[in-house]
Amino acid sequence: MYTIVLATQKGGSGKSTLAIGLAVAAQQAGHKVRVIETDRQGTLTKWQARRNAGEPIVEAVYDAKMIEPRLEALARDGVTVCVIDTGAGITASTTAAIRYCDLCLIPARPSVADIEATAPTLSVVRAWRKPFAFVLNQAPIRGGHRISDATSALDADAPRDIAEVLAQPFIMMRNDHQDALAAGLGVSEFDTDGKSAQEIKSLWRWTAGKLAGDHVMHEAGELKDASEHSDLEFPIMLTPPAEEPKLPVARVYPTWADNGIDWKAGL
Q1: Per-residue pLDDT tens digits for 225-251
Q2: What are the CobQ/CobB/MinD/ParA nucleotide binding domain coordinates in residue numbering (predicted)?
Q3: Side-chain half-sphere of 236: how many Cα atoms within 13 Å?
């Protein structure tokens, strides 16, 4: 089973609509899909209440300690894709979801401020050494310079080949996403031939390729263990265990700590 987490520090980035869109697109591609919601706002739970179709089922899991056993149970039941939608901020449940995921997608609107706000989430992802990608979401259809500025900011935040960490395609801001949410549908069900539907389907194909290893997936750097911090609300400053060997790396990039910046300053 593949587990995909949608996470970012900033609210309003479109995590829930992307989670719904990807879950439905994965189901349409033939997967047995479940969705876990850790956000007490309950956007996905309310979406399913409006939905006539039973699948994909949304489960609310707020206790961080229950995420691992629930994922194990879903895998035993034959689920092939699990999508986890998280709330804003870095909470214990978000950290646990990232810890057990196969891929963390970090949505961000194409503005420098939104990109900078992803830094705490990226710190947790790197601490657990998880594969990740940014998703430029709610991009204006006529906003080329904004997208260019955002990709430049991403290149500074994640100093590596930007193609490795920037999901394709960008998701444009269209009413279809909100209309589908209100109707209890995925955007690829709401208007199967619409541009938004095609973008989400393409994003799912890109994500599936990432999971299958068609793209470079891992961040270079030391293997770090966060088990002793897994119940903390802000487990960002982590240290590597003495007994764990270091993974061979080709390139090592500076962290906030290397630059003398603590996580509070980066918020």
Answers
A1: 333 333 333 233 233 334 444 444 444
A2: 4-46
A3: 21
Number of structural domains (the chain) is 1
Q: Looking at residue 39, what is its pLDDT?
A: 92
10: containing domain: 2-211
How many CB atoms are closer than 10 A to CB 125?
24
CA distance 138 to 170: 8
Task: Classify residue 158: in a domain, yes or no.
Answer: yes
What CATH number is associated with residue 128?
Answer: 3.40.50.300
Based on DSSP, count helices (H) and strands (E) in the chain, helices before strands: 12, 6
Output the CA torsion sign for 85, 67, 29, 129: positive
How is 14-65 classified by DSSP, letter by letter?
A: -HHHHHHHHHHHHHHTT--EEEEE--TT-HHHHHHHT-SS--SEEEE---GG
Residue 254: count other Cβ atoms within 10 Å of its Cβ. Answer: 9
